[in-house]
């Protein structure tokens, strides 16, 4: 059984009015939850192994690679590209130790896109994009 992501808690939340970093804040959690769900459903593994596998898929380099492949592959709509660009171009005051600046910004764009789709109630589209990412 999976968590029902078919509606947001507060339907009055308009993601079009939120900053890209706010969208990335929620999108980071949504992406992480989808990765964890996928790993748990694949196989019953020790928690430490699950954690290590999740970290590999949620790191900035992996997310940036996924964003590039979605964008370059023509899988995104114009609206989705716009959200991704807004997230990519957002000014952050933080860079992780193990990521390039370019990867970090592109990963933030992907997280913003996932946050936007989640808050827009576009759960099936969100899952479709996640399935594509997993197939790369």
Largest β sheet strand count, sense and barrel closure: none
Q: Which residue ranges are poorly predicted, with pLDDT under 50 across at least 5 consecutive positions?
A: none
Tell how many strands the DSSP assignment holds.
0
CATH fold annotation: Ribonuclease iii, N-terminal Endonuclease Domain, Chain A
From the N-terminal CA to the C-terminal CA, the straight-line distance is 25 Å
Order of helices and strands: HHHHHH
Determine the strand fraction and express it as a percent band. Answer: under 5%
The CATH architecture would be: Orthogonal Bundle
- Rg is 14 Å
Helix content percent band: 55-70%
Cα shape: globular
Reading off the top of the CATH hierarchy, the class is best stated as Mainly Alpha
Count of discrete alpha- or pi-helical segments spanning 4 or more residues? 6
- In the residues, how many domains can be counted? 1
Describe the fold and architecture.
It is globular and about 40 Å long. The model has no long low-confidence stretch (mean pLDDT 91). It has one domain (15-135): Ribonuclease III domain (Ribonuclease iii, N-terminal Endonuclease Domain, Chain A). The longest helix is centred in the first third of the chain and has 23 residues, at 20-42. It is mainly α and 136 residues long. The protein has helices spanning 20-42, 47-58, 60-72, 78-89, 101-119, 123-135.
């Amino acid at each position: 059984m999976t968590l029902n992501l078919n509606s947001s808690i507060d339907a009055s939340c308009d993601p079009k009015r939120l900053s890209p970093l706010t969208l990335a804040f929620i999108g980071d959690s949504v992406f992480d939850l989808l990765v964890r769900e996928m790993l748990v459903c694949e196989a019953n593994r020790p928690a430490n192994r699950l954690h290590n596998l999740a970290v590999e898929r949620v790191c900035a380099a992996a997310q940036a690679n996924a964003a590039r492949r979605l964008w370059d592959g023509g899988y995104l709509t114009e609206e989705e590209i716009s959200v991704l660009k807004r997230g990519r171009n957002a000014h952050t005051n933080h860079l992780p130790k193990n990521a390039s600046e370019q990867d970090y910004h592109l990963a933030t764009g992907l997280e913003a896109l996932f946050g936007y789709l989640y808050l827009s109630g576009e759960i099936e589209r969100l899952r479709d994009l996640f399935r594509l990412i997993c197939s790369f």
